[in-house]
User: Which sequence fits this backbone?
């Protein structure tokens, strides 16, 4: 009798332990990629660009306003600034100091990460095209990847004034972009139920919870 | 195991935008790399985390092109010579869908099945990657100097150069040809059409002294008499004609009109199936009938009696008298057309139109059509030259004479240079092959009608090595300009000065033309056209042997003369009349079938007069066909259609679409006869048909062809299901009471057992006007292209597993001359009380707040319960995974529509992706969706404007107005399923039906 | 180890019973135990092995078919856009129907205190469970994506949460079949416990351990028996409406749709009575085989077989009435589509199936009115097989002929089963007989404790013998 | 406190019943009787009250009905109202089949589990060895003796008198 009770106790403790573990650790179902934070080919810092420099999201991800996809900016957008900015400010200052100390002209400093960008565009140290070299595409790793049967439209959400952070989280503080939300259907639907939409003459309508809003 | 439906095998192409201009080598390679990448990505998708997916943005984006955002490029359809204007819908640098250009003067917005499907040909991996020399791949750098040198040698000498093309109506190309040929001492350009209309042009030459094809204006005709001309499906310019025809049968507005359409024909054509009165005649009777008609018209017009007494020997005098009366009542608002390639027949038709005064009204010679320019007599001359070995260089461009013209000895030419897009019968014997580009990747122009210049511009950088004929000829004449330059220069010199609206700046003019897709030039008008009546002579009635059958060779919608035989969409498109796919066959009438003891699917031997090899092909028993006619479709048995051996799923019960090494159908082009007049005759041979004892099941999408149910099973009074499915009234009945057709239908109470608690703000709905629908099937292919509908192959069609979301139900009633036909497009009716929704256990199909019957592929577990309970049987199940036969053709997938995997149900969604796109754009602009802004693919492609879509809750909307028409009814609405598709009942001049009142 | 009970019984001095004894051969409880445990305690005979290997071969064919279908697609079946259900759902309804006799015998006859049920109720219940297993497989494999079949259960999820469609008759099926299977299993197992204890107490070694585990420590205490009988009564009372509901729910798969020929209110009673009919057909088939193969002629007597024949005649006649009612309702509805559907069912392209159905289900059982037929085991066996075939055709006729010709003539189509479908049908029979033969081999296939209660009294009980089972 | 248990093993149902009746008459408390099948008429002799399984069954059924109806209503009409074929969100008639099935399911399971729990039956439980024959053809009667009031052979004799094939006593 007592051994049976001990058995029951063991099973109960195991179940409780599993429950506690499930609560405290980040247990996710298959398919949930919340927290995905892959390494990118160029260590682009959103903290620096979106946070410190406060560049508007739409400056690079211009597709979000007009298209379904927000898009990853083409390298030419990077070059809008990085045709002049080629290294971090600290490195430039250090070079200036060194140049002052050594009494020579400042040299153009190119940071390791930006070097990769220029390599991709087949530019040399003076940012001139290298003869004979072909530009290479930059293969960024996709962070927010919805299943193929889900159609999410950035432009509608941006047009309705939804802040990027609502879904993407505090990107301005992320060194490397991380998937902030779980992007599960329940998460989408929850917001669609709460959110009201203004349509001409029909003031309080919920955002659509129709299947065909996303699946077709 | 794949868990979820795949959207597309291509990634969303973020940023990979390619300029819609002349592509460079590197950009083309980049495109193909991406295609390859996409396929690799799809093959390994489906795991939970899945493979790492990359985003590859362009280094430098194209101006104005945003990844994921569609854009349209106006260009010209390359599907046939009709030169319809199209808008190519492009996404991420590639065209994915062709839509009719509503502003285009020729096509005004519709697009035929072949045109819709031609986007798939762009992604055909059969197309030449390199020029060929005697079958071996070479570079252009090798071909050009060699040909320049060879041709240069002929320039100095007396060599004979012949250029054989199909109809070439692009002015820039014609100028280039003229320029090229003028550099030789003896050079000639011979034009022919696979589907020849040479007799029509020759007749006008004989009658008016000018070889021209008049512009036909069906919209102005009050009486149309067609002798075997299938003008609504395959004849000359079907989109233009269908639009005109439907405008002539307009039941809306203050002055409703309904033209009277007589069709006299041997086989059962789509046009015949739409006719108000259809008379079966054998081809050899056409001349007598037309002569008799002209005789009667002469009397009525008070003209000189050139054909006096012709009516006496006319076979169907009663019919001809009726037609003559109707024609003369309509006077100049009449149109007599003939499809025959017999000059005599065409001359009588000319004469009849002349007697009626139709020239200048329904027939316009001032702005003649240039959609058929072929000259069979010139062809006959070329044949003789070739036979004599008198041609040094024969250049063939954009034509396949080795298939079309089996009696032309091409090999006898000194050198055979062939310009073609993909391997065919002619390139197989060519000394040199210079690849042509697809119309969607090239620069060009067309002049389908005098004064209408339609531009062709690239929608994608060249995917293959093609170069237009214009550029090739220039290169071989040592002219190194680019294609775009050649075109621009021609337009600057020849088009701009005569343009209707030239402006001051050529660049602005050309850009505007590119944006619209066409430009219009001034044409001389008011020229007096006098008919030299001497050409009209009495006919000598001829009669073939009593028991012989006359072979009628005809093109099928889609495949046409065989040029689209490699296009899987068109091979699987059910013939609008027979509903058979993937085959050609011998159509015979039920009486003939009984006489010959043949039945559907029996393989019969067709032995024709002359020493031609007999053909063996399956029999199709066709109602409404003349008993003396056996009709066989052209365009089959094409080389290279063995590619379809792999189409369709592979499993233990599968029967291949074509046997290994075989081809689709049988080549009937060998039966085209050269008549005494030197013209190609498509209905000139008499033949015998005998059974072989073997049979082969034809792949038909419809098994029961009538609204009549089998008599021994029918409840009394319900032998025909027309009232609940396709009611019909005559024009006179309709004028008396617009709802005549609907009398005697089931009572529709519309009462519910419960209170309705789902009223939405918007309710999407559709109307389909059966009085306008001709059954042309453009919508079927449009839907297939838009919605990534799979091709399943012949065997699956035989098993009734075709995937088309939109089908056209075709019902015959009656026999012989009295066959009446209904074409009824049938797709998901988006019922408000959908029987399918209530039965799905997992909520995979539910109703949206906007009245859509949604099908959620990723939720579907595939019980098929919904399909069973659908009264319309419009739901389609993915029995297998259907892979495209050509991996490259996955690029034609619409990225906005999920590609369904096996085991899920699918169906018409009312093109919800278009609804969502329009709503998104409207939201972005802060406005409501405008009426007419959303057009489903079927509506967009409909040349007859039979389909309307919109918000039924908005009383102002066009669809709501049409839905409240007195003719409106819902198919099977007595089931109280509340369909959102309303049909407007058919109205025509046919036989009056006795309305059985309950 | 068996305990040889000394035979202390005096010679039977009681008057002969008014009816032939339920159990023949003047059995004592010890004889009952010995006879019924014999088949499971000795090595299997050649006949058993022959049957088992045949069933296993059929099952293997079925497993291959299902595997191939899962790998390739539902396209390996003969279905099409018009006929979306064919053999699979026919087999589903057929097997569910087969199951009904078991519940009827164990529950309804228990409530009506029909003592003759005791010889057959155990195996009839086992048959129910195996038939429901076979039935349940078909809705699973008929799915396009069977690996997602768990979506039909309303479990908490991260999709919103997204639940299921409670209005779907297919979901009702899930619950009805699930409940039916669970309750049947519980009822069957509870009935088995005392007998398992009997086997346990006769066994040794591993066998003793296994049966010791399975018998739940049963000791035959009067207190337990008291509750036990109450529980059995309650379960029987629950199972009786349940069995009626299950085939009614299955019939709503058809009756709630708009397909002419399906859309008819007579279907629920029609299906239930058909199920009982087919179930008794199958019970007869199995019992006739089992009594022969397992040597249980004393326990499954002619009296049992006669009783079942009477049920067969009775239910067969009701089935005939249902067919007639259906035709009448179709005519009386005035709906042209309904009338056509039934005309087509009888005289259309698949009319042969209808007439097979009528011949097998309505005509053949009527032969049982004849004493000569009733006395011939061969004839009864043949009729029971015919009834099984007929009832299978009934489902085929309802499902396929209705779908083939519905509203729009343009979509009319035919249906011919494929090899894979046939393989799955054969496989389901293989599974059924495999399970049943294993059951016969390893479990007491007749309820010993219940038989012991219906043994003819061997001595005067006086006032003590009032209570009967 | 220890009790003495007197066990009589019979081979005929009638013998046991007669012995039991005598015990009853002599007010000897019958602890239990063991038999291969239910003995009718023994309950009052032992003093077994009517089982309350009926109540358990009813409560189980009630729970099933309530849960099923509420859950169906909640998911279809409250949590995510979905328009299915134009039917009302609260489609009560359509919820009934499942409500019925759930009623039966929970009632049946409750009854079965209550039976097992109340009778202390569980998988793997060991049965008393001494009473082994009672699952075959023997009937055992167990009588308790609170204090040593009976003569040592009295019970044994009584059992044998009624035809017991074996009789013994043991301490609890």
Assistant:
């Amino acid at each position: 009798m007592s051994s049976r009770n001990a058995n029951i106790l063991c099973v109960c403790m195991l179940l409780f332990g599993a429950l506690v573990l499930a609560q405290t650790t980040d247990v996710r179902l298959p398919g949930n990629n919340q927290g995905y934070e892959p390494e990118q080919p160029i260590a682009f810092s959103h903290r620096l660009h979106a946070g410190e420099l406060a560049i508007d999201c739409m400056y690079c991800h211009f597709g979000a306003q007009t298209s379904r996809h927000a898009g990853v900016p083409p390298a030419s957008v990077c070059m809008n600034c990085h045709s002049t900015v080629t290294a971090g400010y600290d490195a430039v200052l250090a070079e200036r100091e060194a140049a002052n100390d050594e009494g020579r002209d400042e040299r153009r400093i190119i940071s390791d990460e930006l070097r990769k960008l220029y390599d991709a565009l087949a530019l040399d140290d003076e940012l001139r095209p290298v003869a004979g070299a072909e530009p290479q595409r930059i293969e960024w790793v996709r962070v927010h990847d919805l299943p193929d049967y889900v159609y999410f439209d950035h432009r509608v959400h941006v047009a309705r004034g939804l802040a990027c952070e609502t879904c993407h989280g505090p990107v301005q503080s992320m060194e490397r972009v991380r998937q902030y939300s779980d992007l599960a259907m329940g998460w989408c639907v929850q917001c669609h139920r709460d959110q009201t939409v203004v349509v001409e003459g029909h003031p309080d309508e919920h955002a659509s919870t129709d299947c065909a809003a996303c699946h077709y | 195991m794949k868990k979820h439906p795949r959207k597309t095998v291509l990634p969303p192409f973020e940023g990979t935008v390619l300029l819609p201009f002349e592509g460079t080598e590197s950009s083309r390679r980049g495109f193909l790399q991406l295609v390859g990448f996409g396929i690799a990505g799809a093959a390994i998708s489906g795991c939970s985390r899945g493979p790492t997916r990359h985003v590859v943005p362009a280094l430098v984006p194209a101006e104005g092109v945003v990844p994921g955002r569609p854009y349209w490029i106006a260009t010209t359809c390359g599907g046939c010579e009709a030169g319809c204007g199209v808008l190519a819908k492009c996404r991420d640098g590639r065209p994915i869908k062709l839509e009719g250009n509503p502003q285009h003067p020729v096509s005004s917005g519709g697009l035929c099945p072949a045109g819709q499907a031609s986007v798939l040909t762009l992604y055909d991996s059969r197309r030449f990657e390199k020029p060929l020399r005697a079958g071996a791949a070479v570079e252009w750098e090798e071909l050009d100097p060699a040909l320049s040198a060879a041709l240069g040698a002929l320039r100095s000498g007396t060599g004979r150069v012949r250029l054989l093309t199909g109809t070439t109506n692009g002015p820039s190309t014609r100028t280039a040809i003229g320029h090229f040929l003028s550099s030789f001492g003896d050079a000639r350009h011979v034009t022919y059409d696979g589907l020849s209309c040479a007799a029509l042009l020759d007749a006008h030459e004989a009658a008016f002294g000018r070889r021209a094809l008049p512009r036909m204006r069906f919209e102005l005709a009050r009486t149309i008499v067609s002798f075997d001309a299938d003008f609504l499906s395959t004849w000359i310019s079907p989109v233009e004609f269908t639009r005109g025809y439907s405008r002539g049968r307009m039941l809306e507005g203050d002055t409703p009109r309904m033209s009277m359409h007589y069709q006299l024909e041997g086989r059962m054509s789509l046009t015949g199936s739409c006719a108000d009165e259809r008379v079966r005649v054998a081809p050899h009777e056409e001349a007598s009938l037309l002569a008799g008609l002209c005789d009667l018209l002469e009397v009525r017009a008070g003209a000189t009696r050139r054909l006096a007494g012709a009516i006496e020997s006319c076979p169907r005098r009663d019919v001809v008298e009726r037609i003559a009366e109707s024609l003369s009542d309509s006077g100049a608002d009449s149109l007599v057309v003939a499809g025959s390639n017999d000059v005599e027949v065409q001359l009588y038709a000319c004469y009849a139109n002349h007697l009626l005064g139709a020239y200048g009204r329904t027939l316009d010679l001032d702005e003649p059509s240039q959609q058929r320019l072929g000259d069979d007599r010139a062809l006959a001359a070329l044949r003789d030259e070739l036979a004599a070995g008198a041609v040094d260089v024969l250049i063939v461009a954009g034509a396949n004479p080795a298939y079309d013209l089996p009696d032309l000895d091409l090999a006898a030419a000194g050198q055979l240079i062939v310009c073609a897009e993909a391997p065919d019968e002619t390139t197989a014997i060519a000394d040199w092959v210079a690849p042509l580009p697809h119309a969607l990747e090239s620069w060009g122009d067309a002049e389908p009608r005098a004064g209408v210049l339609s531009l062709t511009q690239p929608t994608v950088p060249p995917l293959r090595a093609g170069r237009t004929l214009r550029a090739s000829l220039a290169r071989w004449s040592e002219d190194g300009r680019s294609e775009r330059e050649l075109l621009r220069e021609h337009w600057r010199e020849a088009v701009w000065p005569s343009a209707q609206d030239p402006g001051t700046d050529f660049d602005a003019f050309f850009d505007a033309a590119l944006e619209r897709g066409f430009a219009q030039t001034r044409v001389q008008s008011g020229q007096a056209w006098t008919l030299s009546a001497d050409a009209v002579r009495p006919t000598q009635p001829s009669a073939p042997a009593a028991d012989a059958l006359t072979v009628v060779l005809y093109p099928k919608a889609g495949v046409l003369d065989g040029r689209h035989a490699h296009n899987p969409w068109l091979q699987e498109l059910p013939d609008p009349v027979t509903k058979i796919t993937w085959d050609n066959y011998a159509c015979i009438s039920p009486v003939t079938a009984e006489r010959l003891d043949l039945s559907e699917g029996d393989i019969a031997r067709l032995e024709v007069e002359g020493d031609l090899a007999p053909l063996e092909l399956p029999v199709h028993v066709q109602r409404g066909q003349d008993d003396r006619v056996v009709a066989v479709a052209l365009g089959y048995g094409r080389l290279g259609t063995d590619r379809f051996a792999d189409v369709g799923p592979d499993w233990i019960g599968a029967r291949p679409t074509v046997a290994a090494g075989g081809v689709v159908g049988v080549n009937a082009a060998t039966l085209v006869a050269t008549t005494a007049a030197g013209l190609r005759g498509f209905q000139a041979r008499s033949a015998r048909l005998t059974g072989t004892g073997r049979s082969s099941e034809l792949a038909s999408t419809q098994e029961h062809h009538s609204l009549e149910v089998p008599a021994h099973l029918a409840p009394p009074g319900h032998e025909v299901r027309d009232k609940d499915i396709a009611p019909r009234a005559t024009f006179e009945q309709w004028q008396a009471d617009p709802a005549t057709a609907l009398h005697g239908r089931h009572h529709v109470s519309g009462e519910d057992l419960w209170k309705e608690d789902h009223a939405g703000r918007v309710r999407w709905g559709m109307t389909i006007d059966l009085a306008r629908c001709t059954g042309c099937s453009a919508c079927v292919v449009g839907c297939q292209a838009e919605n990534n509908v799979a091709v399943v192959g012949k065997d699956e069609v035989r098993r009734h597993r075709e995937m088309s979301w939109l089908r056209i139900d075709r019902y015959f009633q009656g026999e012989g001359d009295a066959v009446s036909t209904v074409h009824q497009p049938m797709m998901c009716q988006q019922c408000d009380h959908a029987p399918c929704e209530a039965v799905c256990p997992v909520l995979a199909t539910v109703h949206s707040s906007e009245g859509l019957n949604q099908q959620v592929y990723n939720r579907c577990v595939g019980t098929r319960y919904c399909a069973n309970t659908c009264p319309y049987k419009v739901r389609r199940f993915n029995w297998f995974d259907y892979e495209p036969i050509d991996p490259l053709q996955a690029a034609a997938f619409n990225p906005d529509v999920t590609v369904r995997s096996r085991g899920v149900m699918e169906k018409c969604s009312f093109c919800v992706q278009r609804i969502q796109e329009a709503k998104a754009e409207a939201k972005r602009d802060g406005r409501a969706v405008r009426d007419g802004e959303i057009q489903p693919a079927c509506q967009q492609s409909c040349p007859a404007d039979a389909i309307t879509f919109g918000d039924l809750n908005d009383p102002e909307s066009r669809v709501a107005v049409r839905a409240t028409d007195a003719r409106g009814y819902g198919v099977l609405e007595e089931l109280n399923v509340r369909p959102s598709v309303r049909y407007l009942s058919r109205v025509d001049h046919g036989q009056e039906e006795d309305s059985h009142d309950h | 180890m068996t305990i040889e009970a000394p035979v202390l019984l005096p010679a039977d001095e009681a008057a002969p019973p008014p009816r032939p004894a339920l159990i023949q051969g003047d059995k004592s409880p010890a004889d009952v135990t010995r006879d019924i445990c014999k088949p499971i305690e000795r090595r299997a005979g050649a006949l058993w092995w022959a049957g088992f290997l045949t069933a296993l071969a059929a099952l293997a064919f079925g497993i291959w078919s299902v595997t191939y279908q899962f790998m390739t697609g539902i396209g390996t079946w003969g279905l099409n856009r018009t006929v979306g259900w064919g053999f699979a759902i026919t087999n589903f309804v057929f097997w569910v129907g087969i199951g009904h006799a078991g519940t009827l015998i164990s529950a309804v006859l228990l409530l009506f205190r029909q003592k003759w049920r005791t010889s057959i109720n155990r195996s009839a219940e086992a048959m129910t469970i195996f038939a429901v297993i076979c039935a349940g497989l078909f809705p699973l494999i008929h799915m396009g994506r069977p690996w997602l079949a768990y979506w039909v259960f309303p479990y908490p999820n991260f999709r919103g949460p997204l639940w299921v469609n409670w209005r779907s008759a297919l979901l009702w099926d899930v619950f009805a079949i699930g409940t039916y299977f669970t309750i049947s299993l519980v009822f069957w197992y509870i009935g088995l416990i005392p007998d398992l204890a009997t086997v346990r107490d006769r066994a040794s070694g591993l066998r003793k351990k296994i049966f010791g585990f399975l018998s739940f420590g049963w000791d035959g205490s009067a207190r337990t028996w008291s509750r036990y009988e109450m529980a059995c009564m309650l379960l029987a009372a629950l199972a009786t409406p349940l069995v009626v509901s299950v085939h009614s729910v299955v019939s709503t798969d058809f009756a709630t749709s708009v397909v002419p020929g399906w859309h008819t209110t007579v279907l629920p009673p029609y299906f239930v009575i058909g199920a009982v009919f087919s179930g008794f057909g199958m019970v007869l088939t199995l019992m006739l085989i089992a009594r022969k193969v397992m040597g249980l002629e004393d326990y499954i007597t002619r009296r049992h077989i006669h009783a079942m024949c009477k049920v067969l005649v009775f239910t067969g006649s009701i089935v005939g009435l249902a067919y007639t009612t259906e035709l009448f309702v179709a005519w009386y509805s005035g709906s042209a589509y309904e009338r056509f559907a039934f005309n087509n069912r009888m005289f259309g392209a698949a009319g042969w199936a209808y007439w097979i159905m009528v011949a097998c289900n309505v005509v053949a059982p009527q032969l049982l009115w004849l004493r000569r037929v009733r006395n011939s085991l061969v004839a009864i066996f043949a009729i029971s097989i015919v009834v099984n075939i007929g009832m299978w055709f009934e489902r085929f006729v309802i499902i396929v002929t209705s779908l083939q010709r519905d509203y729009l003539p343009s979509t009319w189509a035919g249906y011919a089963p494929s090899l894979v479908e046939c393989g799955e049908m054969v496989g389901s029979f293989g599974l059924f007989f495999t399970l049943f033969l294993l059951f016969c081999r390893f479990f007491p296939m007749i309820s010993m404790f219940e038989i012991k209660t219906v043994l003819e009294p061997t001595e005067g009980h006086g006032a003590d013998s009032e209570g009967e089972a | 406190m220890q009790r003495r248990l007197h066990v009589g093993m019979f081979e005929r149902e009638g013998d046991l019943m007669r012995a039991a009746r005598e015990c009853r008459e002599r007010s000897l408390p019958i602890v239990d009787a063991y038999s291969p099948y239910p003995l009718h008429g023994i309950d009052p002799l032992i003093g077994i009250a009517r089982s309350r399984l009926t109540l358990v069954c009813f409560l189980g059924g009630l729970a099933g009905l309530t849960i099923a109806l509420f859950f169906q209503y909640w998911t279809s009409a409250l949590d995510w109202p979905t328009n299915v074929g134009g039917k009302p969100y609260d489609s009560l008639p359509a919820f009934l089949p499942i409500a019925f099935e759930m009623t039966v399911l929970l009632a049946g399971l409750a009854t079965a589990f209550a039976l097992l729990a109340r009778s202390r039956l569980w998988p793997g439980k060991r049965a008393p060895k001494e009473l082994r024959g009672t699952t075959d053809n023997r009937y055992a009667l167990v009588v308790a003796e609170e204090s040593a009031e009976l003569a040592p052979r009295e019970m044994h004799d009584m059992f044998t008198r009624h035809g017991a094939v074996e009789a013994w006593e043991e301490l609890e």
Q: What stands out?
A: The helical segments of chain D are 13-25, 42-46, 53-79, 92-118, 154-161. The radius of gyration of chain D is 25 Å. The mean pLDDT of chain D is 85. Chain D is about 45% helix and 15% strand.
